[in-house]
Specification:
This protein has helices at 13-24, 48-58, 74-81, 92-106, 111-122, 150-156, 180-186, 197-205, 210-216, 236-242, 250-255, 289-304, and strands spanning 7-10, 30-33, 39-41, 44-46, 127-130, 137-142, 147-149, 163-169, 190-192, 220-223, 226-227, 230-231, 262-266, 281-285. By secondary structure, the chain is an alpha/beta fold. Helix 1 (13-24) packs parallel to helix 2 (48-58).
């Protein structure tokens, strides 16, 4: 690892875009990816965030940010015709990758092994790591008293429920995947991608030793996923508020309390009065990864790496 290469903590779409921006800026990040939303769906092991990051880095991601571009849906159509619930849809190519992963895991491989195979198959240069090889599942507790698996909450129910609490099942015994702690310790800067803090980053922090490694690191920079105090996509702002962390970009600051030393926010959020803090530097720039991702990634590395 060169002195300039950061470690990135990532969820799905937002983290994938940040990873791609860093690569396009000439940086080779090590990317630690959330596995709290992994699940067995249609009989295969789905690693939604890992696949989203991998497909994005390979340039084959679907237009919506997940899945594979121009995928076909023959298997889902057949399952639907047989009366199987296909509210969680996997394209045929996507399903093939998931099936290959499932066979590897059944044969005794670790999730890290499967991720290494995926990145090699897709020709991806950056190093991808699952946060843990152990079972870790994000459970959503809703205001109406439901206990939902992440994919049921997010995909099947369209993240319409009010999130009253989160549980990270398996976190008590989950250990960091090989290389995770070392990649944090050796990085000149650890960047937390503009992913949903409670749903995508907290599961990573729940793995024993990872939070402690970040607290011990001298430079941890989080990029806010909010624009004008709201999520551009997904329920980040709503979840932050429903969990009692507040509203606006200040809620992101609260979500990472005690972990980060810098929070990067978009210029439109720079006047947010809730961003007042003595412990964290708040920096405002244009964070639009869709239009200026490379410029932002270049600026980020010039400032902090």
């Amino acid at each position: 690892m060169s002195d300039r290469n950061p470690t990135l903590l990532s969820g799905g779409v937002g983290g994938a875009r940040m990873a791609r921006a860093l690569v396009e800026a000439g940086v080779a990040p090590t990317i630690i990816v959330n596995v709290g939303d992994d699940d067995v769906i249609h009989g295969v092991h789905v690693s939604a965030d890992i696949d989203t990051v991998a497909y994005t880095l390979a340039g084959i991601q679907g237009s919506q940010g997940w899945g594979i571009a121009d995928d076909t849906w023959t298997m889902m159509d057949h399952l639907s015709a047989l009366g199987i619930d296909t509210s969680f849809r996997l394209g045929d190519r996507d399903l093939a990758f998931c099936l290959a992963r499932t066979e590897m895991l059944r044969a005794g491989a670790t999730l890290s092994d499967a991720v290494s195979w995926l990145t090699a198959t897709l020709g991806i240069r950056p190093t991808l790591m699952p946060a843990t090889d152990d079972r870790l599942r994000t459970i959503v507790h809703t205001a109406e008293g439901h206990r939902l698996g992440f994919q049921e909450y997010f995909v099947t129910r369209g993240h319409s429920d009010i999130v009253a609490g989160l549980e990270f099942d398996g976190a008590d015994s989950a250990k960091p995947a090989p290389g995770v702690i070392d990649s944090i310790a050796r990085a000149p800067v650890v960047v937390i991608a503009p992913s949903n803090p409670p749903l995508s980053i907290w599961p990573i922090l729940a793995v024993s030793g990872i939070r402690e490694a970040l607290v011990a690191h001298p430079r941890v920079v989080a990029v806010s996923p909010l624009f004008a105090g709201r999520a551009k996509k997904g329920p980040a702002d709503a979840v932050l508020e429903s969990l009692g962390l507040g509203t606006g970009t200040g809620a992101v600051l609260e979500a990472y309390s005690g972990i980060i030393d810098t929070l990067v926010v978009d210029v439109v959020d720079s006047a947010d009065e809730s961003l007042t803090t003595d412990d964290v530097a708040v920096v405002s720039v244009s964070t639009d990864l869709a239009t200026s991702g490379v410029d932002f990634a270049t600026w980020l590395m010039e400032q902090y790496a």
